[in-house]
Amino acid sequence: MKRPSQHHKVALDSPISRELNLGPASGRWLADIGIRTLADVERIGSIEIYRLLQQQGHPVSINPVYALEGALLGVHWTKLPAGRRAELRRLLGKEWN
Fold first, then answer.
1. CA 57 – CA 36 distance, rounded (Å)
2. CB 49 within 8 A of CB 56
3. Between vectors from CA 36 to CA 69 and to CA 8, what angle results, nearest 5°?
4. Count of alpha carbons within 13 angstroms of residue 25, beta-carbon side
5. Residue 84: per-residue pLDDT
6. Which of 40, 42, 45, 47 lies closest to 62, judged by CA?
7. Low-confidence ranges of the chain (pLDDT < 70)
8. CB atoms inside a 10 Å sphere around CB 15
9. Do 76 and 20 touch, CB atoms closer than 8 A?
10. What is the pLDDT of residue 46?
11. Helical packing angle, 24-32 and 46-55, nearest 10°
């Protein structure tokens, strides 16, 4: 994934538990499916992680997808570009508010 230059540089080996975009519950859910670093997120992808979390029975919304994408870009999830949010919703195949 190409990162725009205006975003912060992120360390892919950073433990996922240190990401400001994720709360403690999300961190535990990710650990449950073996996601421990941003490198894991980049390798697997936020959409597939969403699906894995659902398969494990976690009550996941689209917000963790935004949070993971934001973490990869080094931005807060609320600053994720609108076009990327729309693309993520399209990839999930659902309408989100």
1. 19
2. no
3. 40
4. 7
5. 92
6. 47
7. 1-15, 17-20, 94-97
8. 12
9. yes
10. 93
11. 80
Structure tokens at 96: 């989100």
The residue with tokens 């433990």 is 15
Cross-strand partners of 15:
37
Q: Is 76 left (phi over 0), alpha (psi -120 to 50) or beta?
A: beta
Mean pLDDT of the chain, nearest integer: 81
Q: What is the 3-state secondary structure (H, E, C) of the chain?
A: CCCCCCCCCCCCCCEHHHCCCCCHHHHHHHHHCCCCEHHHHHHHCHHHHHHHHHHCCCCCCCHHHHHHHHHHHCCCHHHCCHHHHHHHHHHHCCCCC
